Structures are given as C-alpha cells and as structure tokens.
Batch of 4 targets.
Target 1
Amino acid sequence: MKELVRPSRLAPGARVAVVAPSGPVPEERLQAGLDVLRGWDLDPVVAPHVLDRHGEFDYLAGTDAHRAADLQAAWCDPSVDAVLCARGGYGVQRMVDLLDWDALRAAGPKVFVGFSDITALHEAFANRLGLVTLHGPMAAGIDFIKDARAQDHLRATLFAPETVRTIASGTTLVPGRARGVTLGGCLCLLAADLGTPHARRSARGGLLCLEDVGEETYRLDRYLTQLLRSGWLDGVRGVLLGSWEQCGPYEKVRALLLDRLGGLGVPVVEGFGFGHCDGALTIPFGVAAELDAGPCTLTLVEPALR
C-alpha cells in the first residue's frame, strides 16, 4: 500500500466548506460548530442543503442529488481550502456514485474531515483521488462542539501537523511493532463497502484503524468475519482499535476483537481514542506510520498535511 498525496495545512483566514453527505443536521449544533471554527480564525461557509431533510426518508439530509451536489461544488470551488462534514448517520453510499471524480481530481488536493458514515468517502477519496484524509470530529457533532480535547487535536492537525506526528493512546492487545499506511474507519461501513467501485481491494500493507457504535457484539463478529473471509485483511500490518460505544459490555467486545484479530499475527492496540467517543483524536488516513504496541504509539513518518 502506497502513501497518498498530502494536502496543504490550513492557515488563519482559510475558507472551509461544511457539507452534509449523510444524516440531517440540527441547526443549533451547526451554529455552535461554526462558532468554534470562527474562533480558530477560519472562514466557514455552509453548503446550500446542509439543513435539508429528505421528504420521505427523514434519516437523510435532503436528496441524494443535493447532498452530492453540495460536496461536488464545495470541493471544486477554488476559494475553498478544506471540506468538513457536518455529521455522520447514513447516506454516503446513496450519493457517492453521483460524484464526478474527474472533476474532483482536477480541483486538486484539499483537506477533508469526517468519520462514521463518512468512512465510505475516506475509501473513495483514497481509491479514486489518491488523497490523504482526516478521520476526525465533525463540525456539528456533539462530541466536537462540547469537547476541548477533540477540538484541540483537530486544530493542531489542521494548522500545525508536525506537533501531532506521534499519537499515544490505548493499551496493548497484541504486542509488536509494524510499519504501514494508515486506513480504516467505521467497521460496519468497511464491510458494507466491499465490492463497490470506490473501495480498495484489501488492507494489505496497511495499519488498519477500526471503531463502531451501537452495534451488538454478534454484528461486530459478522463484519469482522466478512472482512476475514473476503481476504480483505490479508497482509495487514497492524490494527488500532478505537471506541465501541453502545456495542455491549466491553469485556465481551474485547474478547471478540481478540478472537477475530489476534490470529492475524500483527500488533493490535485497543482503546486508541478515536471514533464515537469523548475527546476523539484525529487520525490521518493514507500516511506512512509506525505502530508500536508496547508504548501504544502511532508515529507518522511525515506530518499529515504539508
């Protein structure tokens, strides 16, 4: 697995677009997130359909065409330096095939931030654009607007990425040290993305980051087993496990993770502090790094952004 193209870091005054590729966005949370971004001396602009709600399926932020058009327009706007997702939920897989990937590629590399349902876009941006993206908190997320640690780590990654080249968190599940290229996201989305045009064929050569929320343990078992049976995990170099909120008693989840991943023969760190949790860390995807499961550190070979 090769390293991907790193976008440029942000500077004070940078224009950032907020889009909603997935679920509907509460206006009060959006406004709170915009206030945080303005406090960082950024210039946030809200895409036209961010506050929309689908007429029939109220779990979607407007129609598939409108959500895709917002992302397309934001990315292709030369005045925009970064595109931040407002929230997750569900909906990316319905709109991702409507994007014009040639136009997105021609617009050049930009910073892209999101997680959860946005996993499908992380995969697409890696596979179709060859671009480093940031798995991090979202502009209207409650876990962002009320959490100083999540804000501080994202801000450092955006403005001074050399200060967060080493991320230390979690505990050892399987010892060892490995180098590879970071990738991953929400486990259920990675499993659902298998076989689609925008997903990579395997995690070979990668340091795989996994997390999820609200999934019963047997469902996590199903997703992990699907990745194993498909061969997608063949050749993975190491695994970082984030949060598993509302996925049942963690002792049971931990036993499952060890059962399904312990046989890979690679280092595994648990509780690494990214995903659906308080103080979520920002993890860049597509960068070369070293995972050391002894001190539980992820050290980037280069900063996430240029």
Target 2
Amino acid sequence: MELLAELTRRRVLAIIRADGPERALDCIRTLVGAGVTALEVSLTTPGALSAVAAARAECAPSVLIGTGTVLKAADADASAASGASFLVTPALTEGARRGVETGLPVLCGALTPTEVIAAMDLGAAGVKIFPAGAHGPRYIRELLAPLPNAPLVAVGGVDARTAPEYLATGARAVGVGSPLLGSAGAGGDLNELTARAVALLAAVRTPDELVPEAHQGGRR
C-alpha cells in the first residue's frame, strides 16, 4: 500500500481520540459512513488497538486504518499485530524507526527543516508537519521552497476552513483531529460528527469534483 499516494488522493486523515474502544469504533463507523476513508486511532485512546482490530475486521480493505502517537518500538509492533496499515508519530520516535524497519508505512512527525530531512532520510512514507496550526499554511510553502519533494501532511489546528489553504500551499493531505471529532469521542452526538465530516470533505474537493449532479447526469 502506497500510503503517500492514498493520502494525496483522499486528502483527509481523520485523527480519533476517544474515551474507549467502543466509542472509537463508533467514530470510525460514523466517519467511514460519511466518506472519510483514512483514519488514525491515537494510542492515547484506552483500548485503541482493540478498536483498530475490530474496525479492520469490519471495514472494507479500501478503508485505511492506522495508529497514531506511536512512540516506542513496542507500540509499532503491537499496532502491526492489531492490523494497522500504517503508523503516525508526533516526532522521530523509536516507533517510527521500528515501523520503517518492519516495512509498515510511517507518517513521521516533524516541524523544522532539519527534522523533515531526518524523517525523509529515515524512510518515512510521509512527513507530518506538527503542529501546523502554530505556523499556518504559509509555513508549508516555505518548507517546500528548499525541499520541493518533501511529502508533507499538515496536522494540528487544521479545520474545514484552513484545510484548503494547506492543500493549496503544497501539503499532500491534512490530518484533522478535534475540529472534526468535537465531543464525539467522549459521547457527543454522532450525527454532528457526520455533518462536520461532510463539510470537511466538501471543503477539500477539487473544482472538477464540484460539478452539479444534474450536469453529471446530462453527460451520461
């Protein structure tokens, strides 16, 4: 699985933090039902790995399900055993190194140019710029000036309003956590989660995907 190509195509990576595995699974089901098909379950969620295993057994193979906040090598190994198809780290961690060693795609956290280069040298499939919101979309453009081939994914403080700006400045995709999840991970309204997911996906559509249905029908 080419993680970078898939994230580039899907544009949105949902980041799930929840009170427990059942609620995490509810959020996964809701997001997939709304059309979000790349999801990261943070290991800060109690029972995160059981939620990943259950979601992997339940969801279609085309749905990408990974683990986030992978810090230790043991986190990477346990994630692989649960069926995670990729790993996400907040920095250049032991977990990132272990994931690369075992061949599991890694979205490795970085912020500075030095860290971005280190993540690329490690063999990460993509580089998670975190916290992107602390610097804004322009920072992505500034990083790409000397590093035009850097596979950057903007994470942290990204929402439906700013997501298109990050993509326009060169981010391959955006990772969205609390602005998307809201209170859903803690028992909040799942219908509201659906509405936020639909709005986010609409915000990142390209112009050719915005052709009205009636017009599409006329071309059939």
Target 3
Amino acid sequence: MKPILVTGAAGFIGFHVARALLMRGRPVMGIDNMNAYYDPSLKRARIALLQAEAGFAFREIDVADRVPMAELFQSLQPEFVIHLAAQAGVRHSVEAPNAYVDSNLVGFANVLEGCRHHGVRHLTYASSSSVYGANTSMPFSVHDNVDHPLSLYAASKKANELMAHCYSHLYGLPTTGLRFFTVYGPWGRPDMAIFLFTKAIHEGRPIDVFNHGNMRRDFTFIDDIVEGVIRTSDTIAVPDPSWSSATPDAGSSKAPYRLYNIGNNRPVDLMRVIALLEAELGRDAQMNFLPMQPGDVPETYADIGSLVKDVGFEPRTSIEEGIRSFVSWYRDYYKI
C-alpha cells in the first residue's frame, strides 16, 4: 500500500488526519516546513507522536520549494494527496502578505504539478470559509458566488480553488476542495480564539473580544473534521453530468472537480463559547471589547448538505463536549 502524502503534517488538522490514517492501517508520508508562525515546539510534539506510530515517515520540506517537492513526488509516487500545508491566519495576512503568496500560491502550484506528473488519483486540499468574504446570505453555500474576498488569505484560498479547477479540466486530475469552518480541539493552533481565550483566562489576563462580542462562528470539532477529510479523500471527484454552462454550479464542474463546506452547521455565539470556557476553567474572563478587525467577518455558518449527501459526513460533537475536551487536553499538555 503506497503512503498517502499529507502536507502540513505538523499542523493542527494535518497531525490529526495523519494520526487517524495511521490508526486505520494506512501508511503516511508527512511533510512540513516547521515554520515559526506559532510555537514550533507544539509542532515538534505532534510529529514526535506520529513518529511513534508504525507506517509514518516525515520529511521537513517547504511546499514552496520547487525542486524538493518535485523530488518528493518522483520518489514517493503517491496515489492520494491530502494537502493541508498553508500559511494560515486572516489577520496575519494583512501584515505579511508575501508569506501567503509563497506558501498558498507557489506551494499549491508545486503540489498540483506533482499530482499532474505522477498519476495521483485524487487531490484533497484545504480551502477556507474565508472565501465567502462579503457574502451575507446564510448559511454559506458552495453553490454561491465567492468573488469578493476580504483578506489576502481568503483570496489565496479562492485562487487555490480556481487553480485546482484548471488542473482538473486540463489534465483530468480529480480535485476536491474543503472549506473549513473554525476548527478547534486538542492540539489546536495557539493563534485561534478558543486557545487564546483559554490561556488568557487561566493566567488571569484580559481577552480581546472583537466586534464587541457580536460574533458567531460555526465551531467544528477536530474529530468531525478528520472524519470528513478522510471520507472525502476516499471519494474520488468525478465530473458532474448535470453541470451546465448556462447555469454554472460553482461547487462542481464538467471536470472531476468538487468543492464542499465542512463545518458544524450550528453556529455558536462567541459569548456562549467564553461562558463555557469560564465554566470549565472555573474562572471569570476579563473582556476587552474591540471593534471588528480588518478582513474579519461577523458570522460564519456552513451549508453542508452536499458533503452529507456525497460522503456521509455528519458532525456529532456538541460545543459543550468539544470545549470540555480541549480544556482537558490544554491542562494535560501544559501540566496545569
């Protein structure tokens, strides 16, 4: 059985996806550039856990480096690629746009070229709910137009979807993009709200609450995300026979190309999340209410009907259960 290539294997979602694949007896080649966007020690700890499992191999490679990526595909000859490596963060893209061009555009082009030249059967890749940008129609649907991004991060993810379609159309490469909605859980990213809030509340420091707390997010627990990613990877994209250029569907194509939302389908008020964290931590939060940040949106809410229909994805974890699980991991990892 050939290894599944998982890019961004030291990242939050990549780590969990790789571990789940290994638990199912499927070998994994993980790559990551181990950059310092957030604490690299957390990334190293994730990789150490993966390396303790049979069937896992790891190489430190930046997807933006063309020659090492080409050599990797040449030597590995993977049948399936799950591309989760990217420069993440909406707010960081306002300050450091070049990082997003390198990783999310150049890096994705290198992945597409590797898949094209080495007969990859299916490329599953991370997009983002950020592509919905200025859309106000709820819930967000993959069938809607998404041509008005509000950050370079969002624009880079929309560009990934367009690039993937070109390769599906020109070379017959099956591609599926997954628009993630606010993923959280154990081993999460330290720059995400739930992690930041937990750390600050525990340490007795104030938390920044943007848009004066008037935010809703489709918080999605990592275990649900992983199940959806693996099911999607196993469901190879095919052309949509009903697709029409007269009434084009943005979520499919005459090419072997698919887009899906992957979220909880139950948006939660940010203030509710803070209250749950206060209850789990046994401490009250000190809140610093601030206006909306550039590039951010007040609400996300995923229409996941297509993903449920096509791959049987069904989120099962309540926000209460998910917060409890995250806080338990946080206390264990940081020896609190």
Target 4
Amino acid sequence: MAECSHDCSSCNENCDKRDFHIDLNEKSSVKKVIGILSGKGGVGKSLVTSLLASRVNKDGFKTAILDADITGPSIPESFGVGDERATAVEGEDALNPVVTDSGIQLMSMNFLLQKETDPVIWRGPVIAGAVKQFWSDVIWKNVDFMFVDMPPGTGDVPLTVFQSLPVDGIIIVSSPQQLVRVIVEKAVNMANMMNIPILGIVENMSYVKCPDCGKEITVFGKSNIDEIAKTFDIPVLARIPMEEATSRAVDEGDVESLDCDYLNAAAQKIESLLK
C-alpha cells in the first residue's frame, strides 16, 4: 500500500478502512503513548512534556520522550544531555535512546546531528518520516508511558503521530491569554476528528506567586481555561506557575530535580491508564 502524502485529492484509497499504524522494533516495549499538543508555539509543550515524564517517572513508572519537534528540538537541553549522541545497535538497523540520570529514555533529532545547532531544513513528508523512524527504529526498553512532544499546529507531524502511533490520549497545553482560546479549540477539534481521547488541559504560565505574601498574580489577566474546559467537557489537569526555580532548572539541564505538586492530578490521570 502506498505511503500517504496527505493529499486527499489525488488519492483513491478509503482512509476510513486503512490502518496507518506502524510497528515498534521487535525488541521494543511501550505500553501507553501520550501526545502533548497545542495549536500554537510558545505555550510550553516541551516544558510540560519534560515535567510530566519526570513526575510520572518519580512515581515508579518507566517513562520515555519521543521528541517529534524535528526542526526545533529542545528536550535534550532540559535534561542536560544536549551533547549526547544516539548510538547504533550493533548488527541491527536500529538506535538506542539516550538515557537520563533518572532513567528516562529520550530520542530527539539533536542526538543525530553533527552539531546541535545544525538546522534541519526538511519538507513536511521527510519530517513525518523521521517521526515514524523514531517510533519504529529505536529500541524502547520496557516503557510504561511514552510522551510525544509535538511541534505547534495541526499539520503533518501531529497527523503522522495520530495515524502512525497507537496514541492512548493527548494533553493539550494552553496559556491564559484570550487569543489562545481559538488555538485550543483547533487542537481539541483535531483530536476529536482523529478519534483520539483528550485527557485534559494543562495551563502553563498560569500565575506568579508573590514571594512575600504568597498571593497569586495573573500576569496575563484572568484565565479563561475553565470556560474552555467546560465547553468541551474536558478537565483542567494543572495550572503551572511561572517560577524562577523552574526556569533555572530547565536552563541548567536539571528538569528532573523539580518537585511539582501542581502536576499531581495530571500524573494521576495519566497513570490511571495502566491501573
């Protein structure tokens, strides 16, 4: 069966009856796949991905991150492994993921570049092919939860992930600004069209806590996340504050050290998929 070019006007196939899922490497094991999605950039998808993988890992589950943001990968830097390189498996056409200090398995385009600052100047179908290879050509070892950090928007890569990987649910990342409402709705509508369960919404940059009095200050104005969640009947799983400690840990590649109580509900929702 021919590869999908996403150009429906030139296709004679009935996509409703096609199975686009691709197989893992025979030596891989991944139980649940969670997509991290937003309709726009700059809202903190990579941060949320890193924090959730670290949080669930601390609860005793084996976690992994597939960095599907091929042209703008940032996951390696958050974990302090930006200089690492993925290693080929001897005698096989496969790769071993890079493993962090706490045991989180990572695969990112930066691990395959000669220099991490080298640009990836590829068109959509080639980028989508790389995402598929990260799933099929990497030996993922006994993973309970794989988090897929997707690029912004609702284009080739999210479509490839939804069609090619057995996604068990997605988390939509938002921010408090009013303009994000339309962007969130786009992500929700795409997930519904693809029949992918929405686990909930995580609002990033939700507030700043005053270091003196503890008052929560809404820098971007009153959030409309509850209204959005009610409209689509999906839960708000977390509100992530803007904190110096978080920013410093990410910049220093030490995101695993953060203890984020505000992610408890999100972690419980994810972990319930196995329980």
